[in-house]
Specification:
Blueprint (H helix, E strand, L loop, with lengths): L2 H23 L13 H6 L8 H9 L3 H7 L1 H17 L8 H7 L2 H14 L13
Length: 133
């Protein structure tokens, strides 16, 4: 390996370890937490696409997958398929993953999914209330 990819991998691993330590040590739900709240929610009262991600990751590092998924289902779903996508980028390309890659790599998919998710998680009716953190 060349020095730049080794440095990038080392930096990423270090950042991940520090992030996990911070999430295990500090509770984003507690007063005085070092994690900032969502500025969009503070200004508008609406949930953004990323609202609940820090709390979801906090629950995830404590082993509470159900609570993590309830905080931000889209982010936790993307986190679940991230290793598959990383493997695809590194050359592991099984045939059964081609439909998933075709959908996820299409910009129109994201241009539809993200705004629909953003609006849906702010609707006050069941089952949309399940999307709110």
């Amino acid at each position: 390996m060349r020095p730049l990819p080794i440095l990038a991998a080392t930096t990423t691993a270090f950042a991940a370890v520090v992030g996990v330590w911070l999430l295990r040590t500090f509770d984003p739900n507690a007063a005085g937490s070092p994690f900032p709240g969502c500025m969009f929610h503070a200004f508008t009262g609406w949930y953004c696409i990323g609202c609940g991600v820090t709390r979801a990751l906090h629950a995830l590092v404590h082993g509470d997958v159900a609570r993590a998924f309830s905080m931000n289902p889209l982010a936790m779903s993307m986190l679940a398929i991230a290793p598959l996508l990383a493997g695809w980028q590194m050359g592991w390309q099984p045939r059964w993953m081609r439909p998933l890659i075709a959908v996820v790599s299409e910009p129109r998919f994201w241009l539809v999914l993200l705004p629909v998710y953003w609006v849906a998680r702010n609707l006050p009716w069941f089952p949309f209330t399940l999307l709110a953190p």
